[in-house]
Amino acid sequence: MKDFFEDIFEYHNHFNQKIADFLTEHASEVSERTIPLFSHSINAHQIWNSRILGTQPLGVHEVHSPEKCGILDNTNYKDTLKILSGFDLGLKVSYQNSKGHKFENSIQQILFHVANHFTHHKAQIISDIRQKGLEPIVTDYIFYKR
Fold first, then answer.
1. Would you list the DSSP string of the chain?
2. Among residues of the chain, what percentage have pLDDT more than 70?
3. For 69-98, what is each residue's pLDDT tens digit?
4. Its pTM surpasses 0.85
5. What is the pLDDT of residues 32-56, one digit of tens each?
6. Do the Cβ atoms of 57 and 46 come closer than 8 Å?
7. With pLDDT > 90 as the criterion, what percentage of the chain qualifies?
């Protein structure tokens, strides 16, 4: 299972870097929600990593430049690899969500959630880019594996 997550997060990191580059190049052409949405997906990954690692989380709705998102994404990817190499995926993590409610989930559940979260928001970002008449990059997993 750890190999699966390493592969999935390598894929997300690869395309997050491409999206960061694309948004840097086209920042003035994308919708007002695109960069905040990309920032949110990067922040959420960092927040989940911080819950596992016991580090300081970002704010869920902090907005960063696309360049900063790329830097944060690389840090997130490295931290996720540390989690995969240093923790049992079945380990339960207790945390509070942004509304202060307490929950507990396994690292495996958390990482699967993060991967799905990226996929969801990546699709929204690609849709935003298309609606502005720009040609988005292809981010499908199977395309990445070809």
1. -HHHHHHHHHHHHHHHHHHHHHHHHTTTTS-TTHHHHHHHHHHHHHHHHHHHHT-PPPPTT----HHHHHHHHHHHHHHHHHHHHHS-TT-EEEEE-TTS-EEEEEHHHHHHHHHHHHHHHHHHHHHHHHHTT--PPP--HHHHH-
2. 100
3. 999 999 999 999 999 999 999 999 999 988
4. yes
5. 999 999 999 999 999 999 999 999 9
6. yes
7. 97
Q: Round to whole Å and give the CA distance between 130 and 62.
A: 24
Question: Domains (ranges, CATH) in the chain?
Answer: 2-145 (1.20.120.450)
CA 6 centroid distance within chain: 14
- Bridge partners, 104 (sequence order): 94
